């Protein structure tokens, strides 16, 4: 019996368990999935908790509910990945050997990487919304907050779901308007990027939306430390921005076990071939989702698209065939903009988000880089799709793992190529 181990039972790992369970011969292969958590979190839903759209119970289900029958699940922290020995050392010192390993350990926030971030104001006037605890604490804070200066700060890139900070700003504008205190809340979006987003055309569109909503934008701000006494963030070049409440998107890092095992870069992300999704150092290790160091977005849709490529390439590697499937960096993200509307972007390594219709040319029903009610409905429907289709490894109809130019405006494509 040969062993395939999937390390991590989040979005990427669970999808792969379901896909491979239906492909690999059960008489020849044992699939084992390892994770220390017994719960599965719908992480895109964390964004909605501070604004009383979702509650904690809406984003949590038992992890085992989504594992296919016939695979082995191990609930344990991992002490070490001994890649040269093809084995995993668990916290209790038991050892699991593998023929192939899929690393899907994800990413996590690391507020301790910024001086003063986790000091006296942490979870009092400094919050994150990238964890369930942070989102719940922020919801409690907002219920009784009467206004002031709210600073939303991205510490550094890359981060999970790079559109989420913008969504937070847009939803905050809606939420405080609904509470009738918007005139008492100053919203300040502070980013290390040179614009509101990573790609020029989308950055302009979202920058215009921030301006429309009277949200101040400060770019090229690299946070160096947080002064808890004076309540201000200070950049490495000594710019200072005061706050009454700081909503931080801290440094994102890969899992600690990646660093302990010597498999990651300085942020514990695994160096990965951007097309085949195979580890750059070990031929029998594949990586997907937020655990990679790829220049694609760290988002659930990306993990889903990657899973289709990885499945083909892993089977080819098992059969000693050339790996012909190529991941193109495809990402597809809905962006809530508040007041029952939203945006949608679709892009990859080489092509930035463009205006148009999705997924059907001329018909849609979703609009690319346009703010519509239909895009909002798509965002809210995604939670059902996540639990019932995406996690189970099913292919989403019409939407291909490779980005299509169908429905996108050629004129804007020419502009994007000149930027």
State the major sheet.
5 strands, parallel
Helical residue percent band: 10-25%
CATH topology of the largest domain: FAD/NAD(P)-binding domain
Quickly count the helices: 8
What fraction of the residues are assigned to beta strands by DSSP? 25-35%
Kindly give the count of domains. 3
The CATH superfamily label of the largest domain reads FAD/NAD(P)-binding domain
Structural class: alpha/beta
Assign an overall shape: globular
Q: Termini, distance in Å? A: 53 Å
Q: In angstroms, what is the radius of gyration?
A: 21 Å
Plain-language structure description:
The chain is an alpha/beta fold and 419 residues long. It folds into three domains: 2-106 and 255-318, FAD/NAD(P)-binding domain (3-Layer(bba) Sandwich), CATH 3.50.50; 110-252, FAD/NAD(P)-binding domain; 331-418, no CATH class. Helices cover 25% and strands 26% of the residues. It contains eight helices and 24 strands. It has helices at 11-21, 132-144, 164-178, 200-212, 256-260, 300-318, 373-390, 410-418, and strands at 2-7, 29-35, 39-41, 60-62, 72-75, 78-82, 87-90, 95-97, 100-103, 107-109, 126-127, 148-154, 185-190, 216-218, 223-227, 232-235, 240-242, 245-249, 252-254, 285-287, 331-338, 341-347, 356-360, 364-368. The strands form eight sheets. It has a five-stranded parallel sheet with strand order 5-2-1-9-20, with helices on one face. A five-stranded parallel sheet has the order 11-18-12-13-14. Strand 21 (331-338) and strand 22 form a beta hairpin. Helix 1 (11-21) crosses helix 6 (300-318). The protein is globular. Residues 411-419 have low confidence and may be disordered.
């Amino acid at each position: 019996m040969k062993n395939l181990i999937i390390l991590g039972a989040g979005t990427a790992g669970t999808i792969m368990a379901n896909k491979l369970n239906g492909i690999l011969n059960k008489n020849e292969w044992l699939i084992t999935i390892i994770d220390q958590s017994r719960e599965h979190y719908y992480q895109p839903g964390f964004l909605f908790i501070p604004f009383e759209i979702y509650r904690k119970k809406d984003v949590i289900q038992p992890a085992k509910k989504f594992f296919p029958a016939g695979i082995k699940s191990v609930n344990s922290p991992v002490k070490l990945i001994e890649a040269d020995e093809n084995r995993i050392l668990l916290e209790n010192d038991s050892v699991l050997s593998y023929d192939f390993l899929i690393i899907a350990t994800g990413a996590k926030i690391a507020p301790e990487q910024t001086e003063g971030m986790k000091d006296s104001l942490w979870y009092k006037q400094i919050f994150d919304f990238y964890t369930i605890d942070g989102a719940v604490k922020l919801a409690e804070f907002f219920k009784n907050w009467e206004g002031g200066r709210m600073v939303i700060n991205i510490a550094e890139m890359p981060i999970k779901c790079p559109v989420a900070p913008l969504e937070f700003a847009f939803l905050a504008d809606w939420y405080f308007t609904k509470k009738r205190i918007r005139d008492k809340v100053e919203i300040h979006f502070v980013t290390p990027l040179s614009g509101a987003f990573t790609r020029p055309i989308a950055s302009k569109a979202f920058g215009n939306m921030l301006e429309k909503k009277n949200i101040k934008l400060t770019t090229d701000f690299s946070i160096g430390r947080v002064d808890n006494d004076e309540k201000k963030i200070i950049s490495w070049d000594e710019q200072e921005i005061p706050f009454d409440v700081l909503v931080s998107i801290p440094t994102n890092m890969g899992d600690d076990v990646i660093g302990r095992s010597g498999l990651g870069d300085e942020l514990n992300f695994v160096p990965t071939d951007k097309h085949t999704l195979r580890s750059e150092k070990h031929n029998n290790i594949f990586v997907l989702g937020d655990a990679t160091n790829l220049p694609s977005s760290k988002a659930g849709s990306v993990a889903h698209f990657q899973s289709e490529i990885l499945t083909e390439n892993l089977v080819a590697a098992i059969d000693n065939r050339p790996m012909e499937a190529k991941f193109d960096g495809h990402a597809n993200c809905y962006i809530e903009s508040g007041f029952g509307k939203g945006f949608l972007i679709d892009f990859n390594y080489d092509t930035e988000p463009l205006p148009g219709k999705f997924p059907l040319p001329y018909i849609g029903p979703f609009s690319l880089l346009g703010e519509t009610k239909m895009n909002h409905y798509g965002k809210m429907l995604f939670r059902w799709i996540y639990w019932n289709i995406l996690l189970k490894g099913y292919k989403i109809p019409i939407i291909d793992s490779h980005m299509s130019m169908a429905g996108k405006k050629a004129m804007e494509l020419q502009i994007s190529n000149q930027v």
